[in-house]
Amino acid sequence: MRTLADLNLGECGIVRQVQASGLTRERLQDLGLVPGTRVCASLRSPLGQPVAYEVRGSLVALREEDARTVLLEEEATDG
Amino acid sequence: MAELLERRVTARSRFGVSESGIVVALAGNPNTGKSTVFNALTGLRQHTGNWPGKTVTRAEGSFRFQHRKYNLVDLPGTYSLLARTTDEEIARDFLLFGKPDVVVVVVDATCLERNLNLVLQVLRVTPNVVVCLNLMDEAERHGLKIDPRALEQELGVPVVPTVATKRRGLERLVAAIARVASRERATPHPAITLEGEAHGAFEQILREVRVTYPSLDAAEWVALRLLERDEAMAQAIRSGHIARLAGVSHDVDTAQRLLEHAAALASSVEAADATVRAIFREAERIASRVVHGSTAPTRKADHALDKILTSKLFGFPVMLALLAAVFWLTIAGANVPSSLLAHWLFMIEERLLALMNAIGSPSWLTGFLIEGVYRGLAWVISVMLPPMAIFFPAFTLLEDLGYLPRAAFNLDRVFQKVGGHGKMALTMAMGFGCNAAGVISTRIIDSPRERLIAIITNNFMPCNGRWPTLIMLATVFIAAAFPPVVGALVGAGTLVGVVLIGFIVTLIVTYGLSRTALKGAASAFALELPPYRKPQVLRVLYTSLIDRTIFVLWRAVVIAAPAGGLAWILGNVSVGDRTLMSAIVDFLDPLGRLIGLDGVIILAYIVAIPANEVVVPTMLMAYLNYNKLIDVESTEQLKQLLIVDHGWTVLTAVCLMLFSLLHNPCSTTLWTIFKETGSKKWTLVSAFLPLGIAFLVCFLVAQTVRLFG
User: Fold this and answer.
1) Is ipTM > 0.90 here?
2) Which residues of chain A fall short of a pLDDT of 50?
3) Which B residues, 411 through 440, put their C-beta within 8 Å of a C-beta on chain A?
4) Which of the four pLDDT bands, split at 50, 70 and 90, describes residue B3?
5) Contacts of A36 in chain B (CB under 8 A)
6) Which of B639, B397, B645 is nearest to B541 (CA)?
């Protein structure tokens, strides 16, 4: 299953499902990561993670373990 | 009624809102310029960045318009009203139970779709909303065209475009607030449309809520929360809070029936996250209709800059270089004004002395007032004011530019490895200003465990009260060994080193805590990187200069003056054949020597428990007590006093810098920690853990150097 963490920089995807629970889930959703949302990977931190994603016009950094809970639709779209 | 009133009063009194006048709440996502709007409306000259005085502490002001008084309440910045963090609870409770007459939601025009999430949520709670479409200039710069009229039609509430930093659009904002405040009854909004069969269940619950509480503004919010089986909302209904909010008498059976029906309806459908999904869908629809244009060249420029500032090659070097530049500016710039100020203040001292003698004041009174109180005051002002008046504006400019979130982005992996939270980088930067403010700022960290770690370790970032000591030591003992031009650079490098040591200790303590007493999984980390903004240079210089001057002067009066008086008394009251001070100093001396310091420095740190600012003045007063009548104005005289007369070495300076960096937080900070954690245990840990570390580190350094030196 492709997740947000699998996106290379410049790649985009459509959110299919958020698997995290509790506060993590609430936080991700508040930032606009709900099913159907288009997300693009934009920046990588010098130490590999977190990665900053473009979501609904804002730039949000997520750690790999959190990004892994966001499942994407199968087909990839270009940035 | 009493209880609701009580809750309303608590919700309001949390913000110091009086009952008279029209209450206007200011809500908004973080980084929308909400505080700038607040300051512009209330005329307060408080800086709006992440420094003491930011929204985390206080949040009330007022303005008058057409003979009516408006009390403005600045709520903490939040993305949503749905989550369970402290800030979101405060904001939600105030909107729901504080019953503001008008809610202004400040939104970032450059990121409208995401910001509409909060607007659409607030509209479920109250129809009395004004949308302040802020940062319109930034949106234009980014090539975005937003149609405020269309947005107004979509939302059904007034929308006012503003550029708060330039005070553009504020008159119209105030007029819109007044209009909403004075209308009889708002037109109700069409309810939000949920996906699938959840909508049917929601409509039924909403109908029942409206039957039970006919005049409740927040009926839709209550219904949405019940649909998602929110226990806090069920409790508010059970206890009668919602009934009182709606102005009907609370009936236990009716409430119970409503809750049971709602629970049955909710369990019949898949309703999890229904609200947030529906609201974002609506936000997307609205944004697509009112926002035109997209990726402009500036957006690409931002991205290019981000690529450099977060790159493997330049990310960390740029961070250190910027920090060093701020310190260099501080050291190089503060030197001359500091000695001018000292010269001038000691000139006044002579005049005052002459005056006291002329009016025949007894020598003990003259001594107490001039050599004690006045000198303490003069010292703190001359040592602290110039560096702080340079350091803070410089750092604030970096912050306003939007650099700090990038630093947090670069550092997060390091914090993650030791079990901390990436936003600690932000709360640590806040600690540079004042650790008490740093402690409060940890509210931006969602998880209680990581927040507690951030609270306990905030102390390892030197605050406003400690910088001058560090700067003085770096200048006198380390930079002075080099020619002036290089000297300032060396001094700046020394301070960067001090910050790095503080950073490393933070990591070690974080690691230790998260492996022992504060074990647990890492919580979600979501850090927004807002667009770079052109800082309002002159405005920042002006406001943070004034802000720092007032802060330093105020602290000098309340803290340094009494400490100066105390030091004088200790130095002049004798027991047997020696003064109290020399008795205490002699007693403490062996302990001091053990860790590379001396008795005087330990005494200074005891006097300085309420505030770190008085360490240097107390120390100097104690030393001067042995050889009075030296005016310590210049670096040379200071060196003479410390090195020649009192046997200081570079080791003393290094140990003192380490002790200053690592020792316990001041009593104000400890009190804040107690208030924020509500725990005596963690407050004690926050006091004694750093103190223990400071003693241990200084002991090891002193003994090692003595062994090999």
Assistant:
1) yes
2) 79
3) 412-414, 416, 422
4) very low
5) 281
6) B397
